[in-house]
User: Fold this.
Amino acid sequence: MRSDAVRTPVKCAPQRSLMHALGMTDEEMKKPLIGIVSSYNEIVPGHMNIDKIVEAVKIGVAMAGGNPIVFPAIAVCDGIAMGHKGMKYSLVTRDLIADSTESMAIAHAFDALVMVPNCDKNVPGLLMAAARLNIPTIFVSGGPMLAGRFAGQKTSLSSMFEAVGSYNSGKITLDELNEYENKVCPSCGSCSGMYTANSMNCLTEVLGMGLRGNGTIPAVYSERIQLGKRAGMKIMELLEKDIKPRDIMTEDAFRNALTMDMALGCSTNSMLHLPAIAHECGIDLNLDIANEISAKTPNLCHLAPAGRTYMEDLNEAGGIYAVMNEMPRTSRALSTRIPRSSVLWRIPTAPPAVSRCSAATSPPTAASSSALPFCPKCSSTPALPRCLTARRTRWRRSTTALSPRATWWSSATRVPREVPACAKCSTPPRRSWVADWAAPLR
Assistant:
């Protein structure tokens, strides 16, 4: 093992004496040295709980027969650094984190590493270090913050910036702004929307460097502590099997990450970080590849700030695996085409109540109506309006697990459209006759 260089030969007696000074026993020094990179600090909300996760990781490592040793990594809160000259220091910390972690790991000959990051530049910096070092490594993040609540609506940090604008324009009072301030960020964790921190934690999971739930289990859930223990035990398995980061972060893995980036609607900052991480793995990842994948990948999630759902909602829906299961696989890489067996192609039994198509009063032509079923109620009028039959539109519904309400989509145009209904009596379609009408299109 790598750590033999500092603990087993007779010439290493001076090093062992220093380890004795740390309180280590002879029995501990015979075990693999597992470095735990702790990003804990008391200035970043996403990191204030990491000490609890680190303790869980230490327990997991010890349970599996390793000797856990903690050392720190810095982290900057982009939100606090924003709006003054401190914002110039955020991005450069990524390389500081990578360099310092690499230095610590090599200088002390760790056999394996468990990275415990959370916020923006901290995660990619440690992924870069893992790729450089190429020793068995696993990640367990600090987890996302719970969404805030204001006036019965969920909120996130972006809502706070919007509230400042609303106050400056006279739309809300100072008291309302203060209430926003106290309710938008209600717990520890990385900010509750799909910002850079949560984007990178989710993509770490997709790359294969974190266990299931790494990107979505809220910071305040006890499940996060369990995840830390499992990560501590799993690193011993990676060490035993000699599975290294570059064995995991392959070109296919990065393509998977880009595909899921588009499907999740991740922060655009991922295109600052994924190419840098790929570069450390000896892989070229550029905007042309990203654009190619983006052109063929549907956006399945609208998480804040793009929508009104939050990381806790994604976690309840099944997390990253729920989104990955919406995408078919080609070998080890995710395909960018949705399969017809997907939930998106199923005909639902209860269409939402919406108004009829504006062209419903125009009767369909004889050619188009001949293949159409008739309304089960009035039986004399084709059940689908002309504007829909002319397009040969097939209706499907997005999965309710990933959105607060069911959304109906047209496969012909991929834009929201109204539910087809009887042109005469407005009777909504039943599953049986919609299925019969759609059969020729399958």
User: Anything to note?
Assistant: The first strand starts at residue 33 and ends at 38. The radius of gyration is 26 Å. The CA atoms of residues 112 and 136 lie 5 Å apart. The chain has a mean pLDDT of 81.
